[in-house]
Amino acid sequence: MPKSKSKKAKAKKPAKSNKAPVPPGFRTVTPYLVINGAAAAIDWYKKAFNARELSRQAVPDGKLMHARIRIGDSIVMLSDYFPGSNAKSPDALGSSPVTLHIYINNVDKIWNQAVDAGAKVTMPLDNMFWGERYGQLTDPYGHHWSVSQQVNMTKKEKDEKQKQAMAMFAQGEHPSRTEEPQIAQN
After folding, report:
1. Architecture in CATH for domain 95-179
2. Which of 32, 47, 85, 171 is 20 to 30 A from residue 109's alpha carbon, by CA?
């Protein structure tokens, strides 16, 4: 007598979709930020990083349950923090455990825009030993950002920069700030 299949085994697979698995404009990985003051953050990202708002959906009290912006060729999704959710904003956590990285054609321009808009510098913009002009910032909502572009550097310049960085690591220091930046309260 043949064995009967379990109910799980008999469950139908979903019908194959004719849609692309990744929506147009998205990449394989898309960051999703939780922010106290998501609407204000969108305005800040527009000013600091030339973000373009793609969509927003608000709940009746005006908080954003979902929004999308584009920075360069990348989409970032975001929402306000909602009590009861397991997703927390940086101010609820005391910091953000993630850094979002932006490669840009004119890193000095975007750096200055972000600083002028109120970003806190956590690692100054400088030419780094790996051949990029790189720096780190924290936005007023507590999210960490790094920005860079590849630059031409001599081998001597790269070697000297690497020597300086390794000396700091050898002393138990990090080339970026050693203390956590304060998160701006909205």
Report:
1. 2-Layer Sandwich (3.30)
2. 32
Q: What pTM does this model have?
A: 0.81
Residue 126: helix, strand or coil by DSSP? strand
pLDDT tens per residue across all 186 residues of the chain:
555 555 555 667 777 778 888 888 888 899 999 999 999 999 999 999 999 999 999 999 999 999 999 999 999 999 999 998 999 999 999 999 999 999 999 999 999 999 999 999 999 999 999 999 999 999 999 999 999 999 999 999 999 999 988 998 898 887 775 444 444 443
135 within 8 A of 124, measured Cβ to Cβ: yes
Which residues contact residue 88 at a Cβ distance below 8 angstroms, ignoring those fewer than 6 apart? 34, 81
Query: E strands along 81-169, which residues?
Result: 99-103, 120-127, 132-138, 144-150
Within 13-154, residue ranges assigned H as helices are: 38-49, 90-93, 107-116
Question: Do the domains 25-83 and 95-179 sit in the same CATH topology, yes or no?
Answer: yes
Helix/strand/coil for 170: helix
Domain ranges of the chain: 25-83, 95-179
